[in-house]
Amino acid sequence: MPRHLPLADVRVLECTGNIPGAYCGKLLVDAGAQVVKLEPADGDPLRTWSASGDLVLGPGEHAPLFQFLAAGKRSVVSDGVEPPAARDLVRGADVVIVDGTGGWDLARVRSLPPPGAEAVVVSITPFGTEGPYVDQGVQANEFILQALCGSIQGRGWPGQEPLQAGGRVGEWVAGAYAGFAAAAGIRRLRRTGRGDEFDVSVFEAMAVTMGGLGAVLAEVLGEDAPAAGRSLEMPSIVPTADGLVGFCTITAQQFADFLVLIDRADLLDDADLASFAGRIRRREEFLEMVHGWAAVRTTAEIVDLASALRIPVAPIGTPETLADIDQFRERGVFVKNSLGHLQPRVPYRTSAFEASPPGAVPELGRDTGEVRWLVRERTARPGAPVDQRPLHGVRVADFTAFWAGPTATQLLAAFGADVVKIEGLRRPDGMRFSGGRPPTVDQWWEWGSVFLASNNDKRAIGLELGHPRAREVALRLIEGSDLVVENFSPRVMANFGLEWPDVSDASSRACMVRMPAFGLDGPWRDRVGFAQTMEQASGMAWMTGHPDGPPIIPRGVCDPAAGVHAAFAAVIALESRDATGRGVHVEGTMVEAALNVAAEALLEHTVRGVTLRRDGNRGPGASPQGVYRTAGADEWAAIAVTDDAQWPSLAAAIGRPDLADDPGLATRPGREARAAQVDEAIGSWVAGRDVGSAVAALRAAGVPAARVTPASELPDDEHLRARGFWEHVRHPVAGGFRSTGLPFRSRTAPSGWVRSGAPLFGRHNREVLAELGLGEREIAALAADGIIGDRPAGL
User: Fold this and answer.
1) What is the rounded CA–CA span in Å between residue 795 and residue 791?
2) Number of C-beta neighbours around residue 657 at 10 A
3) What is the CB neighbour count within 10 angstroms for residue 726?
4) What start-end ranges are recorded for coiled-coil regions in this protein (predicted)?
């Protein structure tokens, strides 16, 4: 396979000490970039971080997570305030990634480059560089951000403590967004000579992926939106005779098939049980029948039976079992790094090049004095507007549906691509029918809140792809496209005659990004899979839930995570195509994106032999950490003490200075050992206060705290509003509402990312087909024969 890596000439300076920045750098080094870590004298904090406890590292040993994130990078130590060597590296870099570590932030980078030098600067911080929470000095780790973004409030049973999603998934997704922005910025830099700044907010990335859909639902439906409450999926993860298995029943047909699976076809006419709300009311009855059926069957037996009925199903991935799952083993999903430890491979495969294998893990300062980058003087090219978006001039044929695929193509559209969404008349994007109005409402298929939030800035045609003449139209569209993106199961595009050979025959310069759930080969190739299935199989669910209870899915984050990874791979494919003149085939599976995001638990097991597991709302790196019920009805305060210096401040704030005087509680391990005592003290204080005053008092004392915010209230968050995160959309049917934007600011999009709302079904049939050279008679004939249309068939 050719080894021309698309970013081989790109210089990246990484000044970070947290997961998002390090993962952004990893994505770039995997695509060939030269990534240099600029570290303080005591090193990147991740060098000594382990989620399983304190590390004592010998010569040549490295922390599990650091091995994964730093492989293939170089290390330079910056031990002065502003040493000349560090300044020269900043000035010579094409991309600079900062998160405040070692004093390197966006403001400092802005002050260094001389006039005429351009670079892509990516800043990744909890709240961005500006806004009320920054001005107020609000402190936050992932747990606090999950409370703010609407994630925690909706997870768990009604009346019980709401739960976090384990594994710091929000930080990983923020890193993926930053990687996409950096790659797109590189493309713009190469073509226009202009750099850019991306001010990435981890909070906003989590708002998009972990709470924003609930907010958009409330915005679109207004008073008709269902009341927000806590829930868990049923069915979901169930104990078997030899382990755990996970189900996902998104559609009514899947739930009916599930009842047949568990030998309860007698309940097929039970309308109450068929509804999600009904199952919650009758959860004890429902879970008893499901658990009883599964308890006498093995996981493998259940997976085979459910797969035959096309019910999304998977064994629950654990740190011990992940590497032995047949789909992952046969596809070579896990590779050994330079130290001999297993880790997930790069989450995409391509026909044009083999992504870099894991390189050596750098010793601290190994390359100090050895890396010398000359400043690359760049001047803006004539005719390149200052606000030209990175993907200006790129056309995308978008065959995606649901959430993961549309997330990818919406990113491409926001960054300037002309995206044409193709929907079947008989099988439109299923998200048109989810989270919207009932069928009694005129044009009810235009109200789906997930669809409205995931398809902005696109054009749309309704094309019945099962018809031979429709295939001809699709191929003409592909002929004029730079990218083709799809996320169906592999057999669907094969049935349409639109696989890679067909695309390549239509245009030798077209790239194709395929996003199957599990891959284009392997024993799971043709299985149905949704985000919940990926979370179950990848180990994400293993890290979420109470320690004495079953794993719980994080809920949905795999869809946008897969979409962002696919968008990154799409940009890399375009860069490869432009360098070689040949289109590129890319396979970016949902589950392999999830495995990268969930990598830490596997790394801890393979490197240290430790099995991480769910621990409720507690987590590594903070103690105490939890949610505490306040005086309001179902109002909770999230609190996290992230360093020992905050502990006396917390003790004073809750009127317990005696706790600060207790030497056994002075350190995090000591507080962890007496967590019940600490929680009782905090809970007693919080219970007598409303959530607002409790959070305000703790923040004033310098303690990270937040209200556990319902997703529906996110549009009123003062920080998100001040940063312009919410985009005002006008839709011809759904009217005006606020939709999630993108989790970063950019110089090229000063007024926001959304230029037009999601398209009506078939809205651009005539416009797009005319661009393909079809005359009015041909277009009318296609409409008369039911090959194109402006409403779903049968509705």
Assistant:
1) 7
2) 11
3) 24
4) none
Which among 278, 305, 324 is the end of a domain?
324
Instruction: In whole angstroms, give the CA distance from residue 289 to residue 259.
Output: 10
- Cα separation, 636 vs 630, whole angstroms: 5
Q: How far, in Å, CA of 402 to CA of 653, rounded? A: 47
Handedness of CA 518, 29, 603, 333 (dihedral sign): positive
546/563 Cα distance (integer angstroms): 29
Cα–Cα distance for residue pair 377/430, rounded to 1 Å: 49
Q: Which of 401, 402, 237, 251 is nearest to 313 (CA)?
A: 237
Q: How far apart are CA 603 and CA 769, in angstroms?
A: 50
Say whether the peptide bond before residue 235 is cis (omega within 30 degrees of 0).
yes
Helix, strand, coil percentages, rounded to 5, for the chain: 40, 15, 45
d(CA 575, CA 583): 10
Under the banding of pLDDT at 50, 70 and 90, the label for residue 227 is confident
DSSP annotation of 622 reads B
Distance CA 197, CA 187 (A): 14
Cα–Cα dist 9/33, whole Å: 7
Tell me how far apart the alpha carbons of residues 626 and 640 are, in angstroms, rounded to a whole number: 7
Phi, psi for 75 (deg, rounded to 5): -125, 125
Is residue 442 part of the annotated active site? The answer reads: no
Q: Residue 225 carries which DSSP code? A: S
Average pLDDT score over the chain? 95
Q: Where are the beta strands (DSSP E) in 496-557?
A: 511-514
Confidence of residue 511 (pLDDT cuts 50, 70, 90): very high
Residue in 559, 578, 644, 679 annotated catalytic: 559
Tell me whether residue 698 is in a domain. yes
Other Cβ atoms within 10 Å of 268 Cβ, number: 14
Angle at 103 between CA 101 and CA 105, to 5 degrees: 80
Helix (H) or strand (E) holding 726: strand 726-731
| Whether the Cβ atoms of residue 181 and residue 416 lie closer than 8 Å to each other | no
When pLDDT is averaged across residues 182-210 and rounded to a whole number, the result is: 96
Domains held by the chain: number: 2
Question: Residues 469-474: what's their mean pLDDT?
Answer: 97
Residue 569 · residue 180 · CB < 8 Å: no
| Cα–Cα distance for residue pair 554/232, rounded to 1 Å | 10
Which of these, 194, 253, 182, lies nearest to 20 by C-alpha position? 182
Identify the band that residue 287 occupies on the pLDDT scale cut at 50, 70 and 90. Answer: very high
- The parent domain of residue 295 ranges over 237-324
Please indicate, yes or no, if residue 628 is contained in any of the structural domains.
Answer: yes
8 Å CB contact between 512 and 588 = no
In degrees rounded to 5, what are phi and psi of residue 157? -85, 145
Can you tell me which residue has the tokens 């999600």?
A: 276
* Predicted pLDDT of residue 483: 98
Q: Which two tokens stand for residue 658?
A: 């005696």
Asked if residue 74 belongs to a domain, the reply is no
Residue 272 lies in a domain: yes
Residues whose CB falls within 8 Å of the CB of residue 221, separated by 6 or more in sequence, listed in order: 436, 437, 447, 449
SS3 state of residue 739: strand
Distances (CA, A) of 243 to 240, 302, 314, 551: 5, 11, 12, 12
Q: How far apart are the C-alpha atoms of 33 and 74, rounded to whole Å?
A: 11
Q: What residue type is 363 in one-letter code? A: E
Place 384 in a pLDDT band, splitting at 50, 70 and 90: confident
Last residue of a domain, one of 656, 681, 703: 703
Q: How far apart are CA 486 and CA 468, in angstroms?
A: 19
Q: What is the 3-state secondary structure (H, E, C) of 110-124?
A: HCCCCCCECCEEEEE
Out of 173-177, 347-351, 665-669, which region has the weakest mean confidence (pLDDT)? Answer: 347-351
Q: What is the CATH number of the domain that holds 693?
A: 3.30.1540.10
Alpha-helical (H) ranges within 271-414 are: 271-274, 276-281, 283-294, 299-308, 326-331, 404-414
